[in-house]
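Reviewer 2 asked us to include a model.

Predict the structure of this chain.
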Amino acid sequence: MSKVVLDAYAVLALIENETGSEIVESYLADEKAEIFLSVISLGEIYYILMRRKSQQAADELVSIIQMDESVRIIEATWPVVRKAATVKARGGLSYADSFVVSLALEHDAVLVTGDPEILAVSKQIHFKLSWLGT
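Predicted model (structure tokens):
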């Protein structure tokens, strides 16, 4: 079973049909894949959609994600926050990005993103990466 972490970039690329959306689609279509999404990433997706479209669009997408049984939303419990803070302390990442990197490390999962900050840090902190960018 493959393990995959989606960040906000990956989900937004999918819904906006941007570069790399087909990669995200293939992970979601794989019934053997275990898909993780940080609740922090869900919050990022929500506020970005509110800015780009509307609160209604953001609410609708979050509801769809929450009902999707193939996506496991990881809550921000203290142990999760502590691991993310440890990654953040190394430098080079936003606080939100530190959650997805720590999640990928914890589950030995492939992190699916097109975020340049994460790509840069992947050279110092070793984790599996599926790059959506150009």
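The two ends are 28 Å apart (CA to CA). The chain has seven helices and five strands. We have added this to the supplementary material.
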